[in-house]
Amino acid sequence: MTDDTEIDIERLDEDAARTELARLADLLAGADAAYHTEDAPVMSDAAYDRLKRRNAAIEARFPELKRADSPSDRVGARPAEGFAKVTHAQRMMSLGNAFAPEDVSAFDTSVRKYLGMGPGTVAYTAEPKIDGLSLSLRYEQGELVQAATRGDGAVGENVTANALTIEDIPQRLTDAPDLLEVRGEVYMSHADFAALNARQAARGGKSFANPRNAAAGSLRQLDAEITRSRPLRFFAYGWGALSEPLAETQMGAIARLKALGFSTNDLTRLCKGPEELLAHYRVIEEQRATLGYDIDGVVYKVDDLALQARLGFRSTTPRWAIAHKFPAETAWTRLEAIDIQVGRTGALSPVARLTPVTVGGVVVSNATLHNEDYIAGRDSSGAPIRDGKDIRIGDWVQVYRAGDVIPKVADVDLSKRPEGAEPYIFPRKCPECGSDAIREEGDSVRRCTGGLICPAQAVEKLKHFVSRAAFDIEGLGAKQVEQFHADGWIAEPVDIFALRDRYGSGMQQLKNREGWGEKSAQNLFAAIDERRTIPLNRVIFALGIRHVGEVGAADLARHYTRWPAMIASLDAARPAMERHLKAEAAVLAERAAAAKEGRRARVTDTRAAIWAEDPPLPAGARAAWEDLVGVDGIGTTVAVALVTAFAQPAERASIDRLVAQLDIQPVEAPDTADSPVAGKTVVFTGSLEKMTRAEAKARAEALGAKVSGSVSKKTDLLVAGPGAGSKAAKAAELGIETIDEDGWLELIGAA
After folding, report:
1. Alpha carbon distance 650, 629 (integer Å)
2. 476-507, pLDDT tens digit by residue?
C-alpha cells in the first residue's frame, strides 16, 4: 500500500526525510519479498516504480541519510525459504567499471604494469555486457547437478529445477571436464518480453517493467512450471571451478563452451590493445538498439588465461577484466544552494542542491561538488578544470550521472550566470560543532578538528563501525545507529556491547520502542553477542582510523597477527614517530633555507642530527617505528595516523573499553607446512624481471612470509634485482642473506 498524503520532496526537512526513507524501505522490502520470494505481488509495477523513484529522489537530496538497507542498492530479495542456499566453490565476482576512453587506457596500463609488460603486448576479448541475471551451472561427469544465482557472490540460491526448464541450458554434456562450472547470464529477448506481457494482460495478470526484471522474477519462481512458461534464454561467458582447463585463452574457452552446446555471444571479438577495444565498443554501441536484447556496456577481459591467473583478484573484482559502461546521461538545471556535510573523518564535503531534474531515468536533486578546489575551478595542483570556471549558487549547471550513487556537477553555463552571483567561500569552521576546519598540506579536503566533540563525526564513526566490512551486526544498521545515538543509548562503540546490561534487562526497554518487538530485540542482542568474537583485521578496520582501509587493516593484521602485539608495538613506536615528525619538519626548513641561500640542502645531516638528539629514544622505539613503516603497503602516512590515534587519551580509552568486551581472533596463517619461507621477513628491492613487485608480494604472503618495505635486523632475506641500492648495502652491513630473482624463484619452487 502507498500513502496518498505524501509530502512533496522539496518540503521535507531532514527529520521528515529520514522518517520517509524508513517508511519507503519497509514498503519496498515488503514488496520485494512478496514479488520475488512469495510470488504474490502486493502492489502494481507502477506503484512500485513510483516508490522507488521517490526513494531515489530523497536520497539524491539528502545523500547523508542514505540507509544501509537502501532500496536503491537492492535487487530482488534474500533467498526464499523454498530455495536452499548454495556456497559457490569459487566466488562470483563483480566487475570494475570504465566510463570513458581514458578509463580503458588506464585499465590496460594497470594490467601491463602489474605484469611488468611493455605497451602493445596484451590481447583482450570484448563482448556485450548482458543486462540479465547471473547464473552458475555445475556439471559433474557431464550431468547438470546444480544451478545457483549469484546471491551476494559467496552464497546464492539453488534454482536447479528452474534452470532445467531453459532450452539454452544443456542438461548433459559430452567430452566435458569431469567438473565444470559454467557462468553466464539469464535474460529475456525484447520480442519474448513483449509477448509475455501481452499474455499477462490478456488474462488480467501482472505486467513486467522490463526484460531484466521479468527474467529475474521468472528464474526465482518456487514453481518450476511457471519458469517453464516464461521464455528465458542463457548466454555463457565464463566458468568457475574446473577439473581441467578448457583452453589456454579466453577466446578458446568460449569456443569450447560453444562446442559443448552453450549459447555464446557472436559479438565477442579478440582485440589487441585499447584502440581495438574502443573500436569494437563503438561497433557494439551502434548495434545496441537492434540486438533484440538489453545490454548496458562491453566487458573487456585479458585473453591469455595464464596472465589472468597471474593478475588474480582484488577483494571483489578481478584485475583482468572491466566493464565499459555506455555513456551516462546528462542534464542541465539550476544550482540552488551548496551544503556542507561532515563525515566520520571530519572531512567537509560540499553537496550541490539542485532544482530537481531527471537524469538517466532518476530524479536528481543533489550532486557532489568534491571539494573546495573543484568548486573554484582548479585541481589539487592548482591547474584549471572546466577552463577555470568556478561554481556559484544560482548557476546553470550540467549534471552527470554514471552509475554512481551521487551524481556529479560536470560543467557551468556562464551565459546564464545571474548578476551579482558571488564566488563561493568555503567554510573555515565546522558547521556541526564550530571547531576549526583545517586543510593539511597535500590534502585536497578540509577537515573538522573537533574529533569526539563533533556529533557528525561520532555518528558517522558508529555507522562505519557497524558497516559490512567491519562488525556487520545483523539488525544494527545506519538507521538504528542514528536512532540509538539520538536517544543517548550509544555514544561510542563499546556502548553497543553494553546495551543489554545498561538498560536493565535491555529487552524491556528495546521491545517497547516503535518498530521493535520482543523477537527483534532478542535477535539484536544475540547478533551483538555473536560479534564479541571477531577477527583482528575487522577490528582494525572498524575503528575508522584515517588512511586505514580494508586492505591496510588486513596488511596490519597479517603483520602483527595478534591485538596485544600490535598495541605494544604502536605504543613503543610513539617516541620515534614524534622524532620522525620533528626530523621531517627540520628537513623541510633546511631545504627552504638552502634554496633561499642558493646552496645544497644538508638533508642527511639534518635528519641524523634530530634523531641523535637528547634525550635518547627509549629502547626499542626506533625499531618498532621502522617495523611499522616497513609493513608493505603501510608507509609513514598510515603509520603516523595509527600511532597518533592510539596515543590520544580519550580515543585510546574508548578503544580499550571496547576491546575489553571482545575476543579478538588472530589472523589465520596460510597452510605453509612445506613452505621454505614461512614466518620469514622478506624484502624485495631493485627491478624484478620475471614478475612484478605486486606478484612477488602476493606469492610470498601466500607462502607464509611477511613482506617488508625496508631492511632491518628483523629481515631474514633480501631479494635484489638489478638496480638494488641502499637496501642491498644495508643488508650487506647487517649480514642479511641476499639472493637474486632466479634464486627466489628456485627457493619457492617456481623456477
Report:
1. 25
2. 888 888 888 888 888 889 999 988 876 545 55
**Rounded Cα–Cα distance for residues 360 and 70 (Å):** 19
Which residue among 52, 66, 129, 461 is the active-site one? 129
Buried residues in 682-699 as b, exposed as e (16+ CB within 10 A): bbbbbebeebbbbbbbeb
pLDDT of res. 39:
40
Task: Read off the C-alpha cell for 248.
Answer: 589456454
Tracing cell 518450476 back to the chain, one arrives at 224
CATH architecture assigned to 9-73: Orthogonal Bundle (1.10)
Q: What is the pTM of this model?
A: 0.48
Q: Is domain 466-531 in CATH 1.10.150.20, yes or no?
A: yes
Provide the CATH topology of domain 85-325.
D-amino Acid Aminotransferase; Chain A, domain 1 (3.30.470)
CATH topology of domain 681-747: Rossmann fold (3.40.50)
CB burial class (10 A; 0-12, 13-18, 19+) of residue 415? Answer: exposed
CA nearest to 737, candidates 718, 709, 720:
718
Distance, C-alpha 601 to centroid of its chain = 43
Which cell is 162 given?
Answer: 528452474
β-strand 737-739 against 717-720: which pairing, if any? parallel
Tell me the C-alpha distance between 117 and 376, whole Å: 39
Which letter does DSSP use for residue 452 in this model? G
- Which residues, at least 6 apart from 338, have a Cβ–Cβ distance to it below 8 Å? 350, 351, 352, 353, 369, 375, 391, 393, 424
> What's the rounded Cα separation, in Å, for the pair 440 and 374?
17
> CA quadruple 235, 237, 239, 240: dihedral positive or negative?
negative
**Domain boundaries defined on the chain:** 9-73, 85-325, 330-438, 466-531, 541-665, 681-747
Cβ–Cβ < 8 Å for 659, 563 = yes
Pairing of strands 408-413, 396-401: antiparallel
Q: Give per-10-residue mean pLDDT for the chain (751 aa).
A: 59 84 85 54 60 84 79 54 79 85 92 85 93 93 93 84 91 94 93 85 74 82 80 94 95 96 96 94 85 90 94 85 82 92 87 83 81 90 88 93 70 93 93 83 79 77 88 88 85 88 57 70 88 94 86 88 94 92 86 87 87 89 90 84 84 89 84 78 84 79 82 88 84 91 85 60
- What would you report as the CA-atom Rg of the chain, rounded to the nearest whole angstrom? 29
- Residue 616's contacts (CB-CB under 8 Å, 6 or more residues apart) are none
Among the listed residues 623, 749, 751, 627, the one whose alpha carbon sits nearest the alpha carbon of residue 683:
627
Residue 240 to residue 130: CA distance in whole angstroms = 18
Provide φ and ψ at 277, rounded to 5°.
Answer: -60, -45
Reduced to 3 states (helix: H, G, I; strand: E, B; else coil), residue 682 is strand
**Before 535, cis peptide (omega within 30)?**
no
Q: What is residue 79's predicted lDDT score, i.e. its pLDDT?
A: 45
**Predicted confidence (pLDDT) per residue in 585-642, tens digit:** 888 888 888 888 888 888 888 888 889 888 899 999 999 998 998 887 788 888 988 8
Cell of 674: 612445506
Which three-class secondary structure state does DSSP give residue 334?
A: strand
Kind of pairing between the strands at 717-720 and 681-685: parallel
272 belongs to the catalytic site: no
**Residue 31 CA: distances (Å) to CA of 1, 42, 47, 51, 252:** 9, 6, 10, 10, 44
